[in-house]
User: Fold these one by one.
Assistant:
Number 1:
Amino acid sequence: MTPEAVDHLMDVLAEDNEEAIRFVGLDEAVIGIANQHAGLKPVLCYSERRILDTLAKKQFQDAEDPDEAAREWYGFNIQCLAVGQGTPVIISDEDYEDVDFPHQEAQPIDGEGSATD
């Protein structure tokens, strides 16, 4: 997202969660607001893939292996972060082409027909 779009999301979040955290320099990785289960306040939601791409391109572009340097830094500084009600949600959206997920057919909501009828 653009910095202006994330500014807007932070304004929206401020109404319900003044503790919401915004990672400096990673606005490109924001994908929206995550509304969590009861008792937890909404927070920013980030794409893990976009975080890693942004770090590799902006912070570790001169490293021998920018992707590896970004992944290591991310693991120590972002992935393990837990600072209360403002901690962002990070969606793991790596490319899983080599994983064989079992296919499960959609189940009807009302007990009749299928969810895709």
Number 2:
Amino acid sequence: MESIKSARFKYYAQSVEKLKTSNPSRWWKQIKSLGGISSKSCWYNQLLSNDIPNCHDLVEVFNCFLSGLTSHFTPLKREEEQLDFNVPGEYLIDANKVYNELRKIKTNKSPGPDMIPNKILNVFAYELAPVITDIYNSSIIQGVFPMNLKRSIVVPIPKVSLPESVEDDLRPISLTSQISKVMEGFTLTKLFAQIESKLDTKQFALPGKSTTHALTYLLHTILSSLENTSCSARLFFADFKKGFDLVDHNVIICELENLGVHPAIVRWIKAFLSNREQCVRIENSYSSWKKTNGGLPQGTKLGPLLFAVLVNSLLKDWPGRVKFVDDTTVLEIIPRCSPSFLPIIVDQISDYANERGMRLNPKKCKDMVITFLKYKLVENDIFIGGDVVERVSSFKLLGVWLTNNLSWDIHVDNILKKANSRIYALRLLKKAGLSPLNIVHIYCAVIRSQLGYASPV
């Protein structure tokens, strides 16, 4: 036993500890492995079969699936390049702004498809700032976006511990060029300033708001309404099928124009979205590159705001709504002996989605009734395309479990279960030779963050 313990200490001291400063990302991966925080097994093995015999085939299958989602969309028309010297001066940037953004880049993050190390961009910020300034200003004036910066490497993240379906159990996260992200940031600031006052006040995925604000607002509205003992509450949790991956670029551009966004910004976003290419990477296997006719790459700075624009006018006249990017929750307060109008509202949501090339997923949409009335309520079922929406007694919304009796038991049990499993990981890390200070840092990262999430709710 002593030899095993000694070997653990030696392995950490000689091979792992030095990574904390030289390669923090790799150090963290080693820590998760030593503590059993992440599974050592290859999750993608679950998806291999006779039809998909190896990882190389898997990345091709997943990339074909993703690109096929939007193959029926009409690609954005490419406009003729033209100089627009009427672009407002405040839309142009100077080298000092670019320098400041380059210095903020985290050097331990993976590079994008251009393979330019983040450390190069950070360390040589002074030398690179004038070049990137010229590129961005030229792109605004000409209404173009460099093709080399439009590529994305899609890294699938399993939604469940043992994924069974390529179509349903993988979330595509896009690695894009860091230079592209810097340029996006400048456009994002200008776009948000123009549309902030026109965005839905119940959209909580905006600066100054958070998931905690969304949950607090929803529960406060429910509790305030149920103080009147003759009322009940009914919730519909909407799930847009493939969310970010099933977005028509033409609809986005139309929505931006309807919001009165300056033509120079609209042209730039149009150039940013059009003719994008992506490949899929799992471990060291890469798929071929494919063009996409739609979708918003998850991992870009503009993506969340553009999706918020897409659903901006959804149910704007219905008071009981909570939006957080692609999560939409509808609340109906039902007076005693009154019918529920929520099925009609869901029909409106479905129509809104279909008109914009989106789709509700009837299997993942849920219905919940909260009531403390003594008599049994009889609500009409909610249908989506002929499928009945399942009524549930509990639902995980924005990371918090809500129940039809407003109890926190399920949520607390889930948090404690996660915390207990990770406390065991701390014991393993202590045996591996980690210092008390490092163990405290890991506790804050993987346990206290879980315990404190949305605690004001």
Number 3:
Amino acid sequence: KVACWKRPSLSEALASQPTISRFENGIGRKELLRMAKGMARLVVRQLPAETKEVILDLDATDDPCHGQQELRLFDGHLGAYCYVPLYLHITDETGRQRLMGTLLRSACGRSTKGVMSLVRLAVRLVRERFPDVRIVLRGDCGFGYGKLMNWCDAHGVDYVFALQVTKPVQEMALPVQMDVAIKHSRAGEGCREYGDVPYRGKTWDTERRIVIKAEAKGGVIDTRYVVTSDTELSAEEVYIWYTQRGDLENRIKEMKLDLSSGRTSCHRFLANQFRLML
């Protein structure tokens, strides 16, 4: 009662559990869309008035299901029945991270499901308030696919994504790997080298910059790849810029542990989306 601004001494009771259940199950698609837009606009209004650049971070996590929820499906990679919610955080120039949007998804299907809709909404709302702001999209290799990068190029959105390893990309990394191998033979563990090459994937509209990072450790050469629209930063600076997204894992951990975002135990899928947004 105190949390709801009610006096404990009053005999008036709060809503019962069945009433709350009816409330969360009465929410439909239109209401959820209005909620998503309203919450995203609220976050954009919290950004400093002098904002010149924002980073939109995409990430997904697992949400194990222990009942008979709608669209509860088995994920072979995770080895469990679960949902795979998508999170979008926005970071301003002060480093402040804010959750801008979240989308509950079934475990079955592409990891890119719902990404375009969430990104379009976020970009549109940011530019409503900051028409000239630089927007950068950042994510792991699950988000670095042709359709999204083509859209970013067409709408003036910069990006930095991890790149899935393919044979052509591996072949382009050989000179960087050779440099690391030579340094390792002289200096031992911890040697690393950065480089970049132009590359065009099969579903890409244009050639893009691929950043390569190779490091000798544990007797092997560990190689990572990043694709970016940035042409000004060095290869090392681009890779470090990409790895800063790792801090967003802590925000998702806070959602799970402190806000119980995994309490998606309603039978209806839309009711669980409502819970996740709350």
